[in-house]
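cache lookup: miss for this entity combination. No prior model stored, computing from scratch. Input as submitted by user K.M.:
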Amino acid sequence: MVIKKMLALVLGGLLCMNCFAACSKPAPLLKEKYNDYFNVGVALSKQTLAYYDESILKNFNLVVAENEMKWESIQPSEGVFVFSNADKLIAKAGDLDMQVRGHTLIWHSQTPSWAFAGSYEDAEARMLAHVTKVVTKYKDNISEWDVANEVLSDGDANELFRQDSGWYRACGSNDDKFVEFLAKAYKKVHEIAPDAILFYNDYNLNFPTKRAKAVKLVQKLLAAGAPINAVGMQAHYDIHGLKMTDVENSIIAFKDAGMKVSLTELDLSVYPGDYSGAPYTELSAELDAKQADVYGELFALCRKHKDTVLGVTTWGVADDATWKDNFPVKNRKDFPLLFNVSAQPKSAFQKISNF
Ligand code: XIL
């Protein structure tokens, strides 16, 4: 009896010491949890760059500029390059030991219309000059580039490219010419930054029709000699209708096409696509829990495909600064990110951290 009691005391003491050691250790950062899986990234803008505490930002090991590396920010008028905001982001990434995604070089949006004006030769020369200037400047800082963004059409299955793109129009709205144009961009980036991972990036790539178009584009680019390595699934989803099997089928399809995959702009709106009710003024416990489940399932899926998935990046840090407050509906408060309006971790953050 006495021996049993003594044994219990000794064991209890050991457990206590153990607990003390464990409890006094800081919780591992998100990026540490994902060390053996993939990069965890975050988008910052010139407005949010200095806004969030480093204790939050150091959870991430990759950063992307929400707007500051787009054409209109970097080359607002022809030949005039403004790097100051992008430089600040690169410096911050250096301080926090983060990799940097470059977003983006060729896009129809947030690009001044003079870029596509004139003849095909004019447009191509401007594209190559832009790519050369920007990629050369950041070749030691940027580890991956969204070379082309959103060139695919949302129309029916036989329409491959977005018809209203200035770049597509500059190619005479000719698919083959446009593929050749894009391939030139990928080759130029690779020539200057041979170690950078080169992405094609787009939204709605979880849906079968657009998935098939992305596979077709990858195949055409490879056939044209473009050194493309990966597909970026933007992942602007919502918490109501997302089918994990759709996301998984796309990861597999891109892998089968020889590509790596990242979720590049992840946010999970709390509104269903066809929502027409009054906007929520706060995130209810019910929505918070539902959102946590969807975040949890998505990260679990990416962990399952860690041999293909290079990174998961959320499009912002906290619900106090998200583009979803104005998209697709203006002035409708949304709550799509991992930290709440007071920059505190949400249930979603706990869910993706504990596995
Ligand atoms: C968005 C930014 O978040 C907004 O601040 C800006 O006003 C418009 O662009 N697809 C992309 C991103 O590739 O660059 C977009 O970012 C969101 C959709």
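stored under new cache key. Residues 1-22 have pLDDT under 50 and may be disordered.
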